[in-house]
Specification:
about 800 residues; mainly beta; 35 strands; about 10% helix
Length: about 800
Amino acid sequence: MRTARSMLLASATLMFTTPALAQNAPAETSPAVASDAEPAAEPPADNEVVVTGTRAPGRSRLDTVSPVDVLSGDTLRAQGTTELADALSAVAPSIDFPRQAAVDGTDAIRPATLRGLSPDQTLVLVNGTRAHPSALLNINGSVGRGSAAVDLNTIPTVALDRVEVLREGASAQYGSDAIAGVINLRLREARSGGGANVTFGTFATKYDAARTSRSLRDGESVSFSGWKGFGLGNDGFLTLSGEYVTRQPTNRADIDPRGPAPQRIRARFGDPEIEQGTVYVNAAVPLGDSGWTAYANGGFQQRDGESAAFPRVADANNLNAEAVRGLYPGGFLPLIGTRSKDYNATAGVRGEIGGWNADVTVSYGRNTIDFATRDSANSTYGNASPRDFDSGQLRYDQLVAGLDLAREYSLGAAVINIAGGAEYRREGFAIGAGQPESYDRAPGADPRLASGAQGFVGFRPENEVDAHRSNGSLYLDVEARLWDRLTIGAAARGESYSDFGETATAKLSARYDVAPWLAFRGSVSTGFRAPSLQQQYYTSTQTLVTGGEILETGLYPVASDIARALGALPLDPEKSRSYSLGTVVRFGGFSLTVDGYRIRIRDQIALSENIQAAASAQVGALLSPFDVQAARFFINGVQTTTKGVDIVAAYTWRTDNLGTFNLSAAANLNDISVDRVPTSTAALNPAPSLFGRNRVLTIEQGTPRTKIVGSVDWRTDTLGATLRAVHYGNVLQPGTVLANDVYTGRNTVIDLEGRYRFNDNVTLALGADNLFDVYPNTTPASLNNNGVTAFPYYSPFGFNGRQIYGRLNLTW
């Protein structure tokens, strides 16, 4: 963390030692700039202009053809969580962020979902520019298995002015991944002012597992964050933001019934230990009197995470732990360390050329994840084994260059906005091997012992890869407002990829304002998602000994000889067709939007089950030349249909003596069905265990079918409070057979925060998330034979219980 701490120290020095610059700077240039001088969670005004889902200027969130949620930075910061994805899921019912555990790297780099679809089917933008995904591929039994998605938690809430969530397919407008919708993170813009806050939190809870009941406090967290605005010239700005977070792990494991008495809790099941530092910058400055503006933004984050694997008990039933009893007499708990370094930088110019508004942008992003296995052992080395291992690295980078042009024409009463542009994108993905002891076997080792480090086997030299691809795209986007009542939009996009060829998408949308208080809107669109480089090239293998023969098992790229022998084919892009129909109602301080949708996805990419050589004589013959016992790989062929309704209502009530009340209620009713799954490959028809029951049910019921959020925010000059209730429908964590299914149950979580404003510069907030200490259903003892998974980790609100926190906010 030394680099991150140094950058944060430099940021803090700039923030706190240059008040004279802020005092003499002109007013901020953007009316949407969030100011921490108003720490309450005030919703955006209905007339606030949005830029997501439309390229026509001046559209407010209630005037758009497509449904767009606008979530202010103040709303996201008025919570106890230090994670952006968690804050979004608490206020936006269409977003889900399960706090999964015991799933290796996904413990520390967790994906979020929109409308229950795969995490990589939502496009994330930063100031309108495509963000880069994480290098991590989720390959274990988590929600979003098989996806490589953008890590929303790399951007701290202190750096944000607002978040715009487009709840509609938009591949024709933005390209690959926008099947479920688009999340646009809008950075803070300020020429002056500044703020800083410190937040302390801890979980104070009591939980009842199948074999134990415990009252405890853990998961202590401390967060320091701040921002500072500087003026650049007469009209430019530079906004610097920074955050440092340290969070201790939580543990909600049950008693481990294995091993000698007395039995005890050996596992660690909950949030990982986290230490991270983040710095963000956002700037823009006019280029003289040319009418052009140069802009830039970027950020860096380093996150060190440490989670736990399953505990190893040293007894005759666990030969791997017994072989290292000299190192760990009572068994051991392997820890999985991840160091994620995330960089992104964007620069561009915007202005006018021949009557056209032009924007030229170049953006680069990179994510590296270094894995370490600690407090572990390679049992084939016996008591001479190392305890800590360098287990390898994943790396992803992305370069994007784009040109956007837009022009507005007036034809009588009609106003037509024409936009078009081009984009070039280059991606790279690499795997680096770990140290030999993290994956190999000691010469002459007992054939019954597993190879590599226990808990997380390192990447082998045979797994190393360095792959790249590029693509180019052209788009045209037309939006016409006719007679002040009818708005019609059309968009088309063509893409060409260097690895799988060409694809095209289109979108038609319309809105009709029956009256100033009532409007109807709808759209039909096609979409696509290109297979990620991670899905095409990721590989992870390990060796084992069977019958005196060293065999291999693992996940193989579709282009490998092993996968092709089993009939794997090159991956095609996922294709979708989306329909939506909705209404907008507004009068006085009240607004209501209701939007129904239907999304059909074909050729969806999924990770197969392990195909065992013992499954059939044919499979055994195909794998025998490679000395492979079992293999899995990515496949196309899953077809799903998602149907649902989004409802969002808001009302502002201003009183003479009691202050202002902002009331809101929102709901997402969502139903996903798997219509078809692949049952064969090019070589196997049928293929054994290609797509399991639990994979189907995870797609259908692994996220809430019903989620309802209601909140009341009250503000006076000195006092404020926010009360929020979130209801989650029943979620299934499926097993391979019906008897192993676990349900979370229907749950309602209450959050409460109170604020006192001492003066214009100092505000104190005290709050509790999950005030009444609600937990999902307990995992039965019969399904938790090692005490680890005491609660279903598919739970959409986690399983940590009540968190209490305090936040001190300073502004200047």
